[in-house]
Fold:
Amino acid sequence: MPGVRVWGRLLGVNTAVVESVEFDEAEQVLVAAVRVRRRDRDRCGVCSRRCPRYDAGRGRRRWRALDLGTVQAFVEADASRVRCREHGVVVSAVPWARHGAGHTRAFDDTVAWLATATSRSTVRQLMRIAWPTVGSIITRVRADIDARVDRLAGLRRIGIDEISYKKNHRYLTVVVDHDTGRLVWAAAGNDKPTLAAFFELLGPQRCARITHVSADAAAWIARTVEQYCPDAVRCADPFHVVKWATDALDQVRRQVWNTARRQPGGSHKDRRGRTASAGAAQGLKRARWALWKNPENLTDHQRHKLAWIAKTDPRLYRAYLLKEGLRHVFAVGGQPGKEALQRWLAWAARCRIPEFVKLARTIRAERAAIHASLDHGLSNALIESTNTKIRLLTRLAFGFKHADALISLALLALGGHRPELPDRTHT
Structure:
């Protein structure tokens, strides 16, 4: 049989004294009886301060350890309670497990590492645990990392956005650091109180150090940033601004299509008896991608489609040119971009297309933020990339009951402080 020290290393409890190791024939598991060393006894499970002993608690307790080959292993020890001046009567701390956990630290760290690196089914089958248990574990590991690492240190330029993570309009507000590319904070909700919680956590001194904030034109973001970081430069996201123009263009396209299909010969009954577009209406219905795509990405067929639109409906083609004109503003950037934006606003104001006249008023209201984006070249491209990765994690996290588990998984995977496998040295 291996020695006491060897068993401690195998089970990940080398900070404790292994008293005995037995194989439970009834449950077919390995059980190691351990005890806490004298210097680690009678400490609060929350703050680790030495406290007076309260009672013996509920007797002996087991913690799931890493499997030994194909056999499940458990660590068993007394679980006494202490009276802490700050936290009251709590179970005393044990060095091999986190407070309130039913697994050892080595087990938790391994599960958290697997959750950020592999699929859900792999974690469940390899570690032989339920998926909701994985959510609890990664939440504990993330809290442990947050206690050691200040994710908000050194923030200067940040990006703020919202992302849907569940049906029925469930959203997360996420904040990324433009300088490091890391996700630094996330919370459930997409309103001013949610974002205000981030700035409250940041504190007045560090809020004053924020120099640039990139975001879309959501009013709740703009008002919160202005309240907590009045000196920060707010940069409008070019993608969202161009998307406004694309949405206005699509409104015009639908209007033209509806008008065309109401004309004689504009629709017919298909084989199932449903009304389908015909003639020019059919061509307009299938022109969406030709109007949406950037000119350099168009196929030959889509270029012919645009040429046909220019001949058949000059108003729709003018709306397309307005969309491309706004995209050109951000393509050139800097002072040329500002001058191009001024010309675009004058053109949109007299284009006689209500959707773009309204868009011009919106852009005038956001002109300062757009100018800042043109000057500094700051956009939400980084945060959109982060959102894409969070969407992938959302599919992986399907089955978690609470958003905290998803947020913990996102911070572990994208926050720059990934969990490490236990007892591994990196060269």
Notes: Residues 1-102 form one domain.
